[in-house]
Amino acid sequence: MEIHHGKHHQGYVNNLNKAIEGTPLDGKPIEEVLKTLDMKNMAVRNNAGGHYNHNLFWAVMSPNGGGTPTGELAGAIQRDFGSFESFQEKFSQAAATRFGSGWGWLCVHKGGKLEACSTPNQDSPLMPEYSHCGTPILGVDVWEHAYYLHYQNRRPDYLKAWWNVVNWDAVAKRYAAAK
Ligand code: MN
After folding, report:
1. How far away, in angstroms, is 140 Cα from ligand 1 center?
2. What is the mean pLDDT of the chain?
3. Ligand 1 centroid – CA 20 distance (Å)
4. For residue 54, how far is its CA from the centre of ligand 1 (angstroms)?
5. How far is the CA of 37 from the centre of ligand 1 (A)?
6. pLDDT tens digits, residue range 22-50?
7. Structure pTM?
8. Which of 20, 56, 82, 172 is the most exposed place for a label (fewest CB within 10 A)?
């Protein structure tokens, strides 16, 4: 995780800063950069997505994570997926079957409806092309750099272990703010 944060994520930050230097995007909130993105601008697309996605990833994990959500988010998961186990299955499947590099997401639509999906590369659900996805509140990195050192090619094992570090309080706060 230290290599992931200090090397991989830092690389996206450095390259994003280079790509937007002296442009109108310089200094704008990252969410605004993504929501108004020109999808053909690959330098900003890849690096702004990379920065935002990793920020979210770090924020929804904790060494004391795991367990299950409570309160409003737990109710919404029950309502929209049938059960927490069924949600885990849908989310893991979206993440496990994303071919090549990408992300698995839990997103919330206006009104509170939840949906599991995935994006390729460093694309974010906040980008215009994915506006049908809603706002991401939980995301898992399925680039090989996220798991190769410990799990080699075993993405499903990484995904299974990852539930042990999910910080459900952080996800619940994002749910409340985004719905
Ligand atoms: Mn990563």
Report:
1. 9
2. 97
3. 21
4. 6
5. 21
6. 999 999 999 999 999 999 999 999 999 99
7. 0.96
8. 82
